[in-house]
Amino acid sequence: FLPHLIASLEQVDQTYIMVKPDGVQRGVVGDIISRFEKKGFKLTGLKLYQCSKDLAEEHYKDLKLKSFFPKLIDYITSGPVVCMAWEGCFGVVASARKLIGATDPLQAGPDTIRGDLAVPTGRNIVHGSDSPENGKREIALWFKEGELCEWTPVLTPWLRE
Ligand code: IDP
Ligand code: MG
């Protein structure tokens, strides 16, 4: 039983969650953080940060050819964002996307962050990685070495199988 428990406790993924500048301005940072805490994710990195155009463009490089790309970069660099690294068992990345809701807040379900708090797609207040690979990539992009904390929440056995 114990070796099995330890092995499954080790299966972790990370997701990069970011409160966009509109979320910071609107004072919903606490609400957003609280939803991930209550879900049982483990916070490993957190900072308020004014990002450069270069960093925003690198983060959204897959969208470079979209017509809204220049506006997206203006939006993301328009004020400080809150960068967060969250860790959880396998499924944490998809689970975070569920809490966030669809890209277009009109399509996002009730009780999701975007469904509850946002209206237009271009002001959808929060970012979440779309795959475990991108979770790793984005955390490495937004956090420097030494900014992430490794710690053991006492509730882990109650939150992971
Ligand atoms: P996601 O944030 O739900 O993963 P993506 O398709 O990766 O959605 O797009 C990244 C961000 O670009 C969105 O969160 C939104 O801020 C912006 N965006 C996406 N599509 C549109 C659009 O059609 N108009 C304006 N902004 C958009
Ligand atoms: Mg995306």
From TrEMBL:
Any GO BP: GTP biosynthetic process
Active site: residue positions: 127
Alphabetical keyword list: ATP-binding, Kinase, Nucleotide-binding, Signal, Transferase
Nucleoside diphosphate kinase-like domain residues: 12-150
Top-level taxon of the source organism: Eukaryota
Record: residues binding ATP: 20, 68, 97, 103, 114, 124
Enzyme Commission number(s) of this protein: 2.7.4.6
Cofactor: Mg(2+)
Segments crossing the lipid bilayer: none
GO molecular function: ATP binding; nucleoside diphosphate kinase activity
Record keyword Signal present: yes
Catalysis performed (reactions): a 2'-deoxyribonucleoside 5'-diphosphate + ATP = a 2'-deoxyribonucleoside 5'-triphosphate + ADP; a ribonucleoside 5'-diphosphate + ATP = a ribonucleoside 5'-triphosphate + ADP
Similarity-based family: Belongs to the NDK family.
Protein name: Nucleoside diphosphate kinase
Organism of this sequence: Lotus japonicus (Lotus corniculatus var. japonicus)
Organism ancestry: Eukaryota, Viridiplantae, Streptophyta, Embryophyta, Tracheophyta
Whole-protein coverage range: 73 to 233 of 233
